[in-house]
Amino acid sequence: MAVEVASAKQASDIVMLDVGGVCSFADYFVICSGDTKRHIEAIWQSVIDEMKKNGVISHHNEGTSDSGWMLVDIGSVVIHIFAETERDYYQLDSLWNKAIPV
User: Per the UniProt entry, what are the Gene Ontology biological process annotations, in alphabetical order (predicted)?
Assistant: First the structure.
């Protein structure tokens, strides 16, 4: 569902990783990018709203658009929404390279 919401908000470079075998706190990561602070916030808010609409409440939300990295933690899935510069800097896609792309 998070992938579809991010896609509907025109997030770029959307990746879903099965991190269950290499991560103790989540089964999946969804990683995507937004073009501007406002775009990052819109993706983040849409993910939260759509989850709530479907009875899924986030455990933890973190970050600000000013930091270039916002996330929504719904337990088994963590959604990371980056500005391109922060995504390039942190390289989560590479950091979790033993995860299986979905």
Answer: negative regulation of ribosome biogenesis; negative regulation of translation
User: Would you say the pTM of this structure is higher than 0.90?
Assistant: yes
DSSP conformational letter for 22: T
What digits encode the pLDDT tens for the residues 88-100? Answer: 999 998 999 899 9
How many CB atoms within 10 Å of residue 75?
Answer: 13
From CA 97, how far away is CA 31, in angstroms rounded? 13
Residue-range domain boundaries for the chain: 2-101
CATH number assigned to the domain covering 2-101: 3.30.460.10
Residue 78 bridge partners (DSSP):
29, 73
- Angle among Cα 92, 46, 30 to the nearest 5 degrees reads 20
Bridge partners, residue 80, by sequence? 31, 71
